[in-house]
Amino acid sequence: ACHPQPFPGVVEASLSEPQTGIVSRWILPLGYGFILTPDGRRVFAHQREIQTEGWKRLWSREPVQFNLAVDNAGREMAVNITQLQETPKRHRASAALQTSTLTATSGKEASPSPP
Question: Chain centroid to CA 56: how far?
């Protein structure tokens, strides 16, 4: 029988010095997105690599700092991702609304919104 492969993991934790980029897209329900590097490459980013407490997510057009690494399939990905500015109030309100909507529709407690 064919068994599914585990989610790609990092084989080399820090291939680059810390660099900055801009989140080009974040897919909230899936917990991942892409960061645009200064040289124009799109790099995969997963929520488990966001270095923050509480609800881990990024916002489109948000500046971030990260290291580049290579997963076990040879693809570049962002690791040790840190947000370079505080989440704007309008995004915090949007996150709170999404959280309360998820709780109301599913009947389950959703992840807490960022402070």
Answer: 7
Among 63, 69, 59, 64, which Cα is nearest to 93's? 59
32-36 and 19-27 strand pairing: antiparallel
In angstroms, the CA 14 to CA 66 distance is 9
- Rounded Cα distance, 61 and 2, in Å: 40
pLDDT tens, residue by residue, 28-87: 999 999 999 989 999 999 999 999 887 788 989 999 999 998 877 788 899 999 998 765
CA-CA distance, 32 to 65, in Å (whole number)?
16
d(C-alpha 87, C-alpha 21), whole Å:
16
pTM of the predicted model as reported, rounded to 2 decimal places: 0.64
Phi then psi dihedrals of residue 106, to 5 deg: -100, -20
Which residues, in sequence order, are CB contacts of 92 under 8 Å at separation 6+? 113, 114, 115
Using CA atoms, how far apart are residues 18 and 94, in angstroms rounded to an integer? Answer: 30
- One-letter amino acid identity for 10? V
